[in-house]
Amino acid sequence: MRTSLVLLSARLLDPLTGGLLPQTALAVSGGRITDLGDDRRMRGLADSSTTVIDLKGAVVTPGLVDGHIHPVTGADLSRGLDLSECGDLDEVRSALAGAVRSLEPGAWLHGWGLDPNVFGDRPVTSAALGPVLDGVPALLLLFDAHSMLASARALELAGVDGPRRFEEASEIVCDDEGRPTGLLLEEAACAVVEAAAPRPSRAELREHLAETLRGMAATGLTGGHAMDANGESLALYSELDADDALPLRFRVAPWCRPDTDAEALRALIAGQGAGGRLWRTEGVKLFMDGTIDNGTAWLERPDCHGESTHAFWPDPERYTEVVGEFHRAGVPTATHAIGDAAVRHVLDSVEKARATGNTGVRHRIEHIETVPDDTLRRFRELDVIASMQPTHCCDFTRADHTDNWSRRLGEERAARAWRCRDLWDSGATVVLGSDWPIAPYPPLTVMAGSRHRRPTRDLAQPPHNPGQALTPLEALRGMTLNPALAAGEEGLAGGLAVGHRADLAVFADNPLTVPDTDLSDLPVLLTVLDGRPTHRTPGI
According to the model, what pLDDT value does residue 452 have? Predict the structure, then answer.
């Protein structure tokens, strides 16, 4: 088989040891690394059809993999006005006013990334935004994507004039007189108003997705663990893959909800392994709770508002039964569990499932925002992957605990925020991700956040619980070796060795030695997926 790609004059970084390999070049054939050696010998493997790139001393790592990401849903939700940089209500109002001025009459305004901290001590309501949205149908997605603010006109068009009952933990928040405040908690409530808004065409969504994925490739991402298969997701992955336009490799976990019946469960099991050249369906995503910021997490003690007291599944024992069914079928699960009660219940459910055998199935818990000491060791004992999003801690909480998340929890539980260090030291496999569109997807920013734990927008601020920071090498492993382990792909991905996939990222300098607060700005010179460049800067 001919050599398709040769990289010369490289510093090859081993994510296992953190050291540089003695070789300075590598060769690729059939999407795999086929040889490592010196420049002269690797150059000799090339022919006239081989792409030969002189890296001039740049640093090569395995391609970076986002351990928790929502590509298609994110491409849909991130259309419209980006509110993520707004630091207070005045900035939100100003941004909305500018967007309203450019709207056609009767058009809907979509916004995303709204941080509830901008409301301070005020309730999160559409009225708090003032008259800027009077008469305008608007849906503003809060940063956690588990809640929305709907304007009065949007509620009117959706026929929402009071509370409604849902089969899962969702709520149209109303005041004491039963009038909607505009706040919609969790997907079922959001969907009621979303149904009244016009949807982008499929062609528009596909183009936005393709553009977004190209942007991801330019940051060194070569893969992601996609935590949903909603809507047209699988069809869009398939189309882009068939058109050679899929610049990342995806492992996709469809959702299983509390109302999923026996037939749908069988379909989720039967659908495992479906996919294409660069994507496949593997695993199932479930939810054990919502979010702390919304008061919809599941905590062992209520938050300061008396909220976050219930599981997302009306019957948590039914969740345990479902996990057991998937486990016996050999299907790994990934469960959203943010609060301590939610995390504990998932661990209990996995322990019960493993007692029936089939211990090779590796389950995951996503987010793990606050947990007590006695849960840490159980991740290792039960071989449960700890999937963490450190930039959530960096960007949505504060070191002095004056943020909404920390105030709701109180000092004791806020001090247990995102225990990456403790989980790592307890022997857990820690995988890092962005949860995009909740937080930005650039993987260097995710790695940097796990190291400095400071607000991305103001690195001069003090770190939140700096004792939970990871080392540079641990952060790199969290986006290379550990995602491969979580996917059961050790020996195939996550390293620089003959036989491994040729999914590579190339940086201007060594990400292990660049200072924590400078890492996000480290230039990405080249990204390679399956042996083919998906991003290449001029001069390389």
Answer: 98
